[in-house]
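Support reply, case 0932

Customer input (verbatim):
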Amino acid sequence: MGGRSGESFISPQVQRERISSWAQTHGHTLTWNEPELDVSGGTMSRPVFERIMERVRAGQTDGVIVAKLDRFARTLVGALRTLEEFERHGAVLVSVADNIDLSTPVGRAFLRVLLVFAELERDRISESWEIATSNAIARGIHISKFVPRGYDKGADKRLVLSGEAPAIREAFLMRGAHRTHTEIARMLNEKAPRPNGGRWTAPMVDRLIKMRVYVGEAFRGGTVNPEAHEAIITPTQWQAAQLAPVRGAARSREPSLLSGIARCEECRYVLAPSVSARSKRRVPNYRCRMIHTAGVCPNPASVKRSRLDEYVEAVWRDQMDKEAVSVRQDSAAIQSASDVLSAAQDELAVFAADTTVRRLLGEQAYHAAVEARVTVVNQAQGELRKALASVQSFSSIESYDDLSVQDRRRILGSSIDAIFLKRGHNRVPIEDRVTVLWRGEGPDDLPRRGRDNGPIRPYAA
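Our regenerated output:
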């Protein structure tokens, strides 16, 4: 393979020495830029190169010196466009090893020939890399800069379970039980602390939960080995963690029933549990923080905590009575739905990666076939959600009142996607201010910490 270990690799130190020698011989003063070792020469959009181009456009440099032409670019079209821009701004390109004189037609023609071979070399290295990575995946090797938490790298370079594996498994089980990313982060900080005093955060937990390496998979591009190493969790447990509804974690020390579920209707952000002082009495409430990373809520809502809690629980009990809920563990249904979903996802992945089918069917028929398989995957996800929603963590609705606030919150969360509160005076009936969205009715793009939530906008029924 090429890259840093291939024959074409020239160390930064050697390149620096060659450039320094050439500049000293020809009487030029140099401004050094750090090497870009982890960026492909097949693209002209590179951070350091962009800074160099800014200097060229501003007239702050006479040109660019490289040790060898393929250090500058390995794409013919991109290189020629850049050289045209050099010429417009009166800058030149010098390749020490190739000794090209771009002031003559012969020199410019020779440059094009060298760029063609540089592009060919890049394609050869890319093809060799793809073959090597495919072979590595087939042998069960996980290709990544970092070893996933919960694993160590064995003598044969395959992943083996580490002492942190039980904590990682617990993280997935907690997420499948609708525990928040913040709660999981607290558990991991205790049982699998990060090195050098680092702390787990909610976004880090979110990324961990999405990794399929924990079901035993190794993959790169379209190549997948589903039995590359020992799994920490089952596919069913992984699916349950992915389908768990998004919740905000409670930010107050006092447990609150609707933390992460109740939201402001005007901005859709989670209501914060807080305490207000009224006539020397501390009154717990829910309130919109008003100021969010995406903007300011124009009509922040707030309500007495007990008032909203009592109303939502009354609505929930009424809904459970109407549905005539029979509580039972239905692991067989969950397993069956998970198997159907896994099969549908595998079929979609294999079909989408088959270039021969794409060529034989043509673009239009191929995309129609892909869309049909995506529809099957979406239907299978819906069936798994239904199966997961049927599993409750209590023996009867009557025993609900005996549970802790945390357990009652998780039970409500398994039935409710979101509760939207409209701003209004306390004299306005609570039922006129509240919208309850049952499981499956909530939007998929509700604001959450750790991602770009876009502009502030109200909930539209």
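We compared this against your earlier run and they match. Two observations from our side: The longest strand covers residues 272-278. Residues 1-8, 325-330 have pLDDT under 50 and may be disordered. Please reopen the case if you see a mismatch on your end.
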